[in-house]
Specification:
Elements (H helix, E strand, L loop, with lengths): L4 H11 L10 H39 L5 E4 L4 E4 L5 E7 L6 H9 L3 E2 L5 E4 L7 H18 L7 E7 L1
Antiparallel strand pairs: 1-2, 3-5, 3-6, 4-5
Length: 162
């Protein structure tokens, strides 16, 4: 029995290839759909694992970094700040916000829509230490760039002082 129209439509959605004129049986089409869906799920798991590994490497880099301490004074009192300057850091991905990758990162990996386009992962660890947060973001961005091979998509560390 020839594959159903629902099966050929599902195959088209998964492969972007027209299967209507192929001689596929119901069983062959069913097996192909199952295999393609399994592959898609595995790709999602792999991407989540890559992002989680990037986060772990970022945390290690932030913990291993020794920020330059500073002394703050108001003219009367002086405070020693061992963690250095205060600030914020994030990892920016230049994928447009409506792409599959950007939507996936927002839905599954704690990224959020960026004001400047794309998506961001904000570093909330390390209290207010700008230097530690930036080290975290740099390590994370490097790992993501090395392991996510999408043409035109890049990750980079960004931040600002408070």
């Amino acid at each position: 029995m020839k594959a159903t129209s629902k099966q050929t439509w599902m195959l088209f959605c998964l492969t972007k290839k027209d299967w209507r004129h192929e001689d596929l049986t119901v069983a062959e089409a069913s097996q192909m759909i199952s295999d393609l869906q399994d592959k898609k799920e595995q790709e999602k798991e792999d991407l989540i694992n890559i992002v989680n590994e990037a986060k772990e490497r970022g945390i290690k880099a932030g913990n291993d970094h020794n920020p330059r301490p500073m002394d703050v004074t108001d003219g009367k009192q002086t405070w020693h700040v061992s963690e250095g300057v205060c600030g914020f850091a994030w990892v920016h991905c230049n994928a447009k916000g409506n792409t599959k990758l950007a939507r996936f990162l927002k839905d599954n990996c704690s990224f959020s829509k960026s004001y400047h386009g794309g998506v961001d992962y904000h570093i909330h660890l390390f209290s207010q230490s700008y230097e530690r947060k930036m080290e975290h973001a740099r390590a994370m961005a490097k790992y993501l760039n090395d392991n996510i091979d999408r043409q035109g998509i890049s990750f980079y560390a960004d931040g600002r002082l408070d």
